[in-house]
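Risk register update: the risk of archive-format incompatibility is retired. Evidence:
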Amino acid sequence: MSPPKGTFDNKEEWHDASAVLMVVDVTSDSTAGNDRVKKIRGYARAAIPVHLLIDREAGEATVCSEPEGDDYARKSSYKHGRTVPLPDPLGFDLDTAEF
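Archived output:
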C-alpha cells in the first residue's frame, strides 16, 4: 500500500501525515535521545499508525502502535536477531537477523 500519487511531490516543509503508515528511526550517538522520546511523541501526535525504533545501543527494535495523544498505547521490544511482528495496517513480520 502506498500513499496517493503526488502526496509528497512538493517542496513544502510540512505535509499531511495521514498518508504515512510507518516511520522508522535508527539511533545514533547524536540522535538517540530525540529518537527515543521527542520523535515518538511527534509521531503519535501526527497519528502515524506504526513507529519502529531500531535502537543500536540497546540492541533491540521497538514497535510502537495505537497512537493516543502524545504517546503510543502499545510498545513491544525485541532483541536484534528476532522476528518482529509489525501490526496493522502493515501486518507482516520483519526479520532482524541481519541487525
